[in-house]
Amino acid sequence: MRSSELATRAGVNVQTLRYYERRGLLQQPPRSTSGYRSYPDEAVVIVRFVKRTQDHGFSLDEIHELLHLAGGGPDDCDTARRLAQTKIAEFDDKIRDLQRMRSSLTEFASTCARPRADRHCPMLRTLHTDEGRP
Fold it and tell me: Kind and range of the H or E element at 19?
């Protein structure tokens, strides 16, 4: 199939296909005599796998590794599990950071409820100092 058909079926644009080829996620297909790329049907599965894996927070380097584990087997499963556990730990760190930022902003915003004459916006003052670090 041509690039445009693959892109449509996989839900990406043609530039994404070229980028995936450059990154080694998608093999460069043979070209027809007229110069068009001719992708095999399995390319749709690969591109969809890449997109779904990105939706789960994996980087393209991590996805490259996961694509090579597609053969299955216990070693491959263990490696995939380790990658998933590492990603979960990264998410946990990000969630803690976001919760800390949310808490800090909530505290700042609550001071704005004071009467106008009594407030000196601590949020803006704090954000202008090192105290404002989340």
Answer: helix 14-23
- Secondary structure (3-state) at 39: coil
DSSP 8-state class, residue 28: P
User: In a structure prediction context, what are the per-residue pLDDT tens digits for the chain, which is 134 residues long?
Assistant: 999 999 999 999 999 999 999 999 999 999 988 889 999 999 999 999 999 999 999 999 999 999 988 767 677 888 999 999 999 999 999 999 999 989 888 877 777 777 777 666 666 666 666 655 55
| Residue 37 phi, psi dihedral angles, 5° rounding | -70, 145
pTM of the predicted structure, to 2 decimals: 0.75
CA distance 109 to 29: 56
**One-letter identity of residue 19:** Y
Measure Cα distances from 12 to 16, 23, 30, 32, 113 in Å. 6, 16, 20, 22, 47
